[in-house]
Write a structure and sequence with these properties.
Blueprint (H helix, E strand, L loop, with lengths): L24 H6 L17 H34 L2 H28 L2 H20 L1
C-alpha cells in the first residue's frame, strides 16, 4: 500500500509496518548532507542501542589492547629474556616506530581516499598475518 499523503516512503519494499522511521542521533550525524541513510543501512540495524553497544565494545577493545600490549607484553618480554635491557629495547623500538610513522600516516589519511586506504590496510594486515604465522 502506498503511504498516505505527507508520510515518507518506506526505505525498503515491505517495510511499511515499521512506521515513520527516523534515524537516531548517530545515524543522523553520519548522513549529514545525504538525507536519510535508509538506502544504506536497514532500519532494524541502526538503533540507539546498537550505536551504544558498538561504542562500548570499541572502548572495551581498546582498553584490553592497551593492557595486553602494554604491561602484559612488557612482563612477557622480561620473562622471556630475564633482563630489563630487552624490555627497554622493545619499548624504545615501539615508541620510535610510532614517532616515525605518525606524520606519513597522517598525510595519507588527509590525501588518499578512504576506500583506497582501507584496501591498502587490509592487504598490509593480511600480509602481516601471513608472515607472522610463518
Amino acid at each position: 500500500a502506498a503511504p498516505a499523503r505527507g508520510e515518507p516512503n518506506p526505505p525498503w519494499p515491505g517495510s511499511a509496518h515499521l512506521g515513520a522511521w527516523r534515524p537516531p542521533f548517530a545515524a543522523a550525524a553520519m548522513s549529514r548532507g545525504r538525507g536519510r541513510i535508509g538506502w544504506l543501512v536497514p532500519p532494524a540495524c541502526v538503533s540507539e542501542r546498537n550505536v551504544k553497544l558498538s561504542l562500548s565494545l570499541s572502548v572495551l577493545a581498546s582498553l584490553v589492547s592497551t593492557i595486553a600490549h602494554g604491561h602484559l607484553f612488557t612482563a612477557f618480554i622480561f620473562e622471556l629474556f630475564q633482563n630489563n635491557a630487552a624490555v627497554g629495547l622493545t619499548e624504545s623500538v615501539t615508541g620510535f616506530t610510532a614517532l616515525v610513522f605518525a606524520v606519513p600516516v597522517g598525510f595519507a589519511v588527509d590525501k588518499i581516499s578512504r576506500t583506497k586506504l582501507l584496501r591498502f590496510c587490509a592487504v598490509l594486515g593480511l600480509m602481516a598475518a601471513i608472515t607472522g604465522a610463518l
